[in-house]
Amino acid sequence: MSAIRGRVLVSVVGTWLQALATTALLLLLGGAIGEIAAGRMPDGGLAAGLVAAGVLRAVFAAAVPAVTIRAGGRLEVRLRERIYQHLLRLGAPLRSREQTGHLVSTSTEAVELVATYYATFLGPIMASMTVPVWVLAAIALFIDPWTALILAAAVPAIPLTVGVFERAFAKVSAGYRDTANRLASRFLDALQGLSTLKLFNQGGAHGRVLAKASEDLRQAIMRLLAGNQVILFVVDAVFSLGMITAAAVLAMVRMREGAIGVGEAVALVLLATQLVEPLDKVGQFFYVGMGGMAGVKEIKALLAERPAVPDTDGPAPATTDAGVEFEDVSFAYLPGSPVLTGVNLRIAPGEKLALVGPSGSGKSTVAALLQRDLAPGRGVIRVGGHDVAAVPGAWTREQITVVAQTTYLFTGTLRDNLKVAAPDADDERLWQALRVANLDAFVRSLPAGLDTPTGERGLMLSGGQAQRVSIARAVLKDSPILILDEPTSNVDLESEAAILAALDRLTVGRTVLMIAHRLSTVRDADRIVVLEDGRVTEQGTHEELRSGAGHYARAVRRAEAEASS
Ligand SMILES: Nc1ncnc2c1ncn2[C@@H]1O[C@H](COP(=O)(O)OP(=O)(O)OP(=O)(O)O)[C@@H](O)[C@H]1O
């Protein structure tokens, strides 16, 4: 932001110089007219001065926008970068789709509005507010102090009027941004849910929702433009006309009194146009100013958001093992509704622990806490013996890899998508990872191999193949701790077999937290922990738990009954 402040200053000074050249031009013009009215030819010095002032004015008029528009472009790039870095710090897990659409709109449209605001509005408007003082000084010095004094009475009305307009329309411009953000959210929703909408034949109905959001935005823009027209009218009808008429009347009165000559009278009227310039600018670019100010507020509010999980800057721990520990951990998404209560868990290095329990019992929350996407309300979580609250989040994330229920694939090639996990990996390493993930034969069968485009959000790959890309990424990242969040829950039986075989290879020698619904996948775990209603209710091996009378034994009996029927 300091760079943009510098540019705004350059633009302020540039506009001052331009106004100075204009004032000199008009004074000299008055002088020339005075000479001609007296029947004399203006001398060479006067003519040269006129040309010089004209050229200088043109140079500044061209240079100021050039400087500010370039600065605006750079500001756009920098602001987007800052927003993105901030979002990384905030973490995404708690963001809803509504917020995602809003964020896209903030980081594209609002950023553009802010950059235009700085480039074409703020500098010139700040400069123009001060220019009338100089013009009045020039009138007092070179034409007539009395006239300058009388005109000076009207000058404070300029910032006052701008202030009143700003306040009056702040709501309209904030409303405009809210409406634009809502439209972006609806659009994102429609695009992501396109196949669902088609499936239920709701494309038309949702189209009407979009059309309504679009119409709301049109109306919001119209309100902003209507405000602009009101201001233009007030500026033209009241200020410009009033100020120039006042200057003309004063010029005639003072001329009749013999205080000023014809040339000075003409210069006075011409300089009066300079006095109303700030308001003229406000009128012309009011919508840019208001849109920009709303954008500034929106971006500031986003940048002021604090991460739900604070990070620590300290050094990464020097020694570590691959153990995981939850000590008396409690957590609630919403105050008063505990999701986990006093959870104690210990996974020894290299141990495979399965977490089972009814839907909503808190299994995914345990995984999110371990990855430090969430922070516990009470208790301590240790990775490799270190309290995750006391070590940098990046270090914790280095220790852990997640293979989740679905895999996000970026638009790009298979190679790009694998290298997300290891940017420096060469092709040999990529193929080796694909072999472990049971995906090498498939990729080899593709004409473009690793260069095959994955399509937007991975639409070129089946769900099972995408899951195996995720396993290959885990191989490449090679972290000591693995979270398997039901990676086979969304695939068919054949894919499941391929994925399970790949997981068998991946998990060798690693500490594993498996989150599982299906009993078939947890049988081989070293230990099973049952979570019910946010509390650990049982733990032991498959054999130990199945002979008991708890949730696990009931679930096993149910599964066996289903299999035999
Ligand atoms: N972002 C959230 N905000 C508020 N409540 C949430 C949020 N995410 C989960 N919950 C609630 O927390 C509880 C535990 O959810 P969690 O996803 O951890 O359960 P789970 O055992 O993994 O369920 P499943 O097996 O169905 O995936 C649920 O009651 C759920 O509604």
TrEMBL record:
The membrane topology of this protein is:
Multi-pass membrane protein
- Domain spans labelled ABC transporter: 324-558
- ABC transmembrane type-1 domain mapped to chain residues: 9-291
A single Gene Ontology MF term assigned here is: ATP binding
Membrane-spanning segments: 44-69, 121-143, 149-169, 230-253
Subcellular localization(s) per the UniProt record: Cell membrane
Check the record and name the InterPro entries matching this protein.
AAA+_ATPase, ABC1_TM_dom, ABC1_TM_sf, ABC_transporter-like_ATP-bd, ABC_transporter-like_CS, P-loop_NTPase, Type_1_exporter
Keyword terms: ATP-binding, Membrane, Nucleotide-binding, Transmembrane, Transmembrane helix
Q: Could you tell me what this protein is called?
A: ABC transporter ATP-binding protein
For this protein's source organism, the top of the classification is: Bacteria, Bacillati, Actinomycetota, Actinomycetes, Streptosporangiales
